[in-house]
């Protein structure tokens, strides 16, 4: 890269070399842990292994983190820090999610860190000797956050002003890391966009995985498959995944918002989340949406009146009731539950897209300033102000004093105040324990 120069930062983790274009400096794929085996817990990197790290090239296959900062940032600049955890159903994704690129943040004087973590069975299968509520993928993120605490100051960041941001599975991970049994003070606030939790625990699904594998679900058994027959393990996972239907196959389950630490949380969802999922689109296109909602609502988590839920779904969009059930079941119900139960200050926002559906993931480039048309608008300003320690300029959400929310239009950048935007999912989906 002839138009970029190398930049080396010396920190507790060693000497790390990235690349700068004179305005923005990037450090790619920095190792933050040692993983002794695919199904073993990660460990901190021993001091005697800390040396010169070449962070000039993105290596998506690694469990690592990346940093994007202003080129003029230096130790004691005390810039706010965003730590981003990517989504991907706990099945895919890396620490290089371009939809959340940190360049616009760097131009605003904000440092962005992307943390990668183990996905699929390596990150989220559980074994008999695992501690309660422990997942290797989540623990990977925990070690990444610790790395940030120990090293980000050398890159110009303020370790006491870290905002944890996650979308979809990444939002789930962020909320799990905010549980009191996990929280270690590594971040000060959370932006959780469209979190998603499985409806059942891994323990309840262990039998279907055992049938797919044809082997016991043990650390030793899965390790042998991963090292000797990875294609066999992948096919078995695909069979296991198919059994779960429209639900998340893996991930933390049994969410209880009252177990969260007392932290400021901004919770968001898109109004139409998974309208684009092919199976839902096909069902609705054939006019079978109402029938399938009646058949599948209980299985997908509806505990209130199915008739009332369907009536509300049809009132919002008479042509897409199945698409709405998929999104409400996968994401919006968890936003509602977290908002009602979290002990700290909570703000709720819902993304719409004017006359078209607002789909899952569409808000990411808007929030991170990657859409040129939205770089100076209200949505981007909300994010930047929140990261700098400000609070949204609408009333907090509270189950007792008012379920206040705001509507953010990603098509026009408009902002509208609202109340109880998640009423239909709150009444339909009771909290899952």
From TrEMBL:
Keywords: Hydrolase
Sample GO molecular function, one term: hydrolase activity
Keyword Protein biosynthesis on entry: no
UniProt xrefs under PROSITE patterns: CARBOXYLESTERASE_B_1 (PS00122)
Enzyme Commission identifier(s): 3.1.1.-
A Pfam match: COesterase
Classification via InterPro entries: AB_hydrolase_fold, CarbesteraseB, Carboxylesterase_B_AS
Coiled coil ranges: none
Protein's UniProt keywords contain Hydrolase: yes
Organism: Corynebacterium comes
Enzyme class: hydrolase
Taxonomy, superkingdom: Bacteria
Residue intervals passing through the bilayer: none
Domain Carboxylesterase type B: 65-195
Designated name of the protein: Carboxylic ester hydrolase
Family that this chain belongs to: Belongs to the type-B carboxylesterase/lipase family.
């Amino acid at each position: 890269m002839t138009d970029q120069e190398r930049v080396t930062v010396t920190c507790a983790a060693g000497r790390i070399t990235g690349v700068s274009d004179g305005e923005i400096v990037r450090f790619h794929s920095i190792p933050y842990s040692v993983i002794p085996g695919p199904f073993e817990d990660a460990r901190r990197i021993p001091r005697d292994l800390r040396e010169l790290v070449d962070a000039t090239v993105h290596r998506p296959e690694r469990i690592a983190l990346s940093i994007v900062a202003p080129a003029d940032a230096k130790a004691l600049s005390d810039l706010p820090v965003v730590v981003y955890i990517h989504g991907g159903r706990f099945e895919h994704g890396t620490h290089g999610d371009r939809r959340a690129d940190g360049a616009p943040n760097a131009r605003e004087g904000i440092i962005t860190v992307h943390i990668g973590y183990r996905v699929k069975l390596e990150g989220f299968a559980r074994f008999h000797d695992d501690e309660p509520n422990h997942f290797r993928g989540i623990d990977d993120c925990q070690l990444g956050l610790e790395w940030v605490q120990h090293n980000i100051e050398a890159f110009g960041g303020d370790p006491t002003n870290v905002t944890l941001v996650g979308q979809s599975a990444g939002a789930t991970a962020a909320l799990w890391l905010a549980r009191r049994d996990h929280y270690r003070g590594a971040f000060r606030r959370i932006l959780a966009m469209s979190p998603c939790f499985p409806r059942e625990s891994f323990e309840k699904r262990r039998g279907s995985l055992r049938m797919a594998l044809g082997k016991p679900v043990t650390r030793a058994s899965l390790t042998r498959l991963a090292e000797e027959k990875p294609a066999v393990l992948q096919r078995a996972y695909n069979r296991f995944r198919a059994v779960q239907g429209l639900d998340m196959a893996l991930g933390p389950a049994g969410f209880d918002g009252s177990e969260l630490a007392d932290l400021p949380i901004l919770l968001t969802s898109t109004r139409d989340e998974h309208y684009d999922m092919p199976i839902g689109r096909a069902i609705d296109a054939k006019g079978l949406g109402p029938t399938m909602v009646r058949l599948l609502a209980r299985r997908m988590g509806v505990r209130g009146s199915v008739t009332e839920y369907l009536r509300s779904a049809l009132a919002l969009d008479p042509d897409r009731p199945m698409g709405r059930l998929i999104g409400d079941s996968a994401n919006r119900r968890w936003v509602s539950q977290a908002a009602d139960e979290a002990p700290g200050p909570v703000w709720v926002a819902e993304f719409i897209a004017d006359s078209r559906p607002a789909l899952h993931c569409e808000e990411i480039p808007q929030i991170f300033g990657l859409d040129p048309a939205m770089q100076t608008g209200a949505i981007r300003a909300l994010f930047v102000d929140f990261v700098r320690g400000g609070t949204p300029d609408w009333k907090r959400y509270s189950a007792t004093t008012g379920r206040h929310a705001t509507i953010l239009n990603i098509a026009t950048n408009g902002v509208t105040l609202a109340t109880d935007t998640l009423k239909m999912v709150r009444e339909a989906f009771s909290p899952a324990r």
